[in-house]
Amino acid sequence: MTHPTPTPVDSHRSLRWILLGKAAAGVTLTLAFAGGWWLRAEGLTLGEYQNELKRGSDPRFDWRSVDKKHWQALGRAGDDSVLANEERPELTDARENNSAGCATGMVRVKGELRTELHGEATGEIERIQDGACTDWISKEFPARCRTFDAEKIATEVGKLPTRALDFCMDRFEYPNVLGQNPMIVVTFHEAEALCKKSQKRLCNENEWTFACEGEEVRPYPYGHTRDATACVVDRNWRPFAEGALSPRDGAGAKAELDRLWQAEPSGSRGACKSPFGAYDMTGNVDEWTVSVRSTGFASVLKGGYWGPVRARCRPATRAHNEDFVAYQQGFRCCGEADTSVPAPRQAPATPTAPRMTPPVAGQADGGAPAAEGPRRRGLGPTADLSTEWGQAPSDDELEAIGRARVGPACAVERGVALPGRGSHGAAAFGALVLAAALSRRRRSSA
What is the 3-state secondary structure (H, E, C) of 56-106? Predict the structure, then answer.
């Protein structure tokens, strides 16, 4: 049996189809890579993006507007059980037993704060801690250390002077209720006014630092080894949309907060507890404090938020004026202690975060599981600072948010598209699906 000899026309036609197939495969792979890059840039996994598409414009959470300025996430959209997880502050006081000499809902903070030998602005203790890091997660911004040498820190800080402090601090971030989410989108002056309204005051940065680190100068409130499951930290950073929070009480602001929110209700993680019993001092949301320095802004942010930042007790963000407002900013209040009442003792540090049973436990989208304890349907930047070695802390938050530009009022000027809502998002996801389909087809035909 003889086979027909291919004609030049047939050969050219076959070659053309082969070239077209290769070109299509190349375009598909390019789109797939671009889609993967876009998902990483948006801080989303493929599964999370699919959920975004399924949900469409439906909100993830129910939100409450406070005074037409601030916002508080109430719970998962359509979930009425969240209120059952809240607890009256007096009941929390009775169980925690660390509020002697303080008003309801506050913890007593008494002891000796280690201070800088050459002044508040030298960053000496941070350098001591950095020099005692034995296991770096990354030395690049934002530099994060997994394990610190506790003995080395104790030896070095033991040479520094101390200052006696005795005061009271809210156990949780405002509104200071176990099981409620922190209130956000608040300026420094508004935080001061809300504390005053509660017959309290905004904490200064030294008070906040001491309440977090204790007399042992712990890098983390729970000890010397970073545990990503202890506090709400190291979640993927999601770019924010320019101007989305203006007006603050608008529907656009609510939608943007719903997209970005990755924090959890106060007290969700029992391990995220300072030696004095204050919860969520690192991670969850940034907290306004009053600067103790004679120069610069009066406003200082402490603690870091849910993103991949240092989230330690000592770092501070100093670059924002008192009118700056962002989606991850909250605060807690301080007050005067009744010094005639003996103060409770500090809790001892542990080598790693304690596996405590929290009063409530929660997990936000894409986040690490909460510490051991009963599960609940919980909720779920100013980044903290990276310092130049040997210098006082400086603000590197802008690097953490994609080297955004900041104007005179410290308002962010970088705009991005919302993930899962626009044509670019759909194209990226479509490219991934197309690439997977073509790959399966090539394998089946091979």
Answer: CCCCCEEEEEECCCEEEEEEECCCHHHHHHCCCHHHHHHHHCCCCCCCCCE
SS3 25: helix
Contact indicator for 328, 382 with CB cutoff of 8 Å: yes
Query: In sequence order, what E strands does 174-237 have?
Result: 201-202
- Report d(CA 265, CA 373) in Å as an integer: 15
How far is residue 192's CA from residue 24's CA, in Å, rounded to a whole number? 60
Q: Which amino acid is at 388?
A: E
Q: What are phi and psi of 440, to 5 degrees?
A: -65, -40
Lowest-confidence segment of 83-87, 155-159, 208-212, 328-332 by average pLDDT: 83-87
Structure tokens, 85:
């997880």
**Cβ atoms of 144 and 137 closer than 8 Å:** yes
Q: Which two tokens stand for residue 252?
A: 């656009």
**Residues with Cβ < 8 Å from 47, sequence gap 6 or more?**
none
User: Which residues partner with 305 through β-bridges?
Assistant: none
Q: What count of other Cβ atoms lies within 10 Å of the Cβ of residue 251?
A: 8
Q: Is the pLDDT assigned to residue 423 strictly greater than 90?
A: no
Domain spans of the chain?
A: 19-56+424-446, 59-419
Q: CA 378, CA 360: separation in Å to the nearest integer?
A: 9
Query: Which residue did the predictor score with more confidence, 362 or 288?
Result: 288
40 pLDDT exceeds 70?
no
Q: What are phi and psi of 196, to 5 degrees?
A: -60, -40
Rounded distance between C-alpha atoms, residue 357 and residue 355, angstroms? 7
| pLDDT of the residue at 17 | 72
Q: 325: Cβ–Cβ under 8 A, 6 or more apart, which residues?
A: 185, 186, 187, 245, 248
Record the pTM.
0.72
Residue 203 vs residues 141, 280, 304: alpha-carbon distances, Å? 28, 15, 16
Is residue 95 very low, low, confident or very high in pLDDT (cuts 50, 70, 90)? very high
CA distance 432 to 71: 36
Q: What is the mean pLDDT of the chain?
A: 77
Residue range 8-32, pLDDT digits in tens: 666 677 777 777 777 776 666 666 5
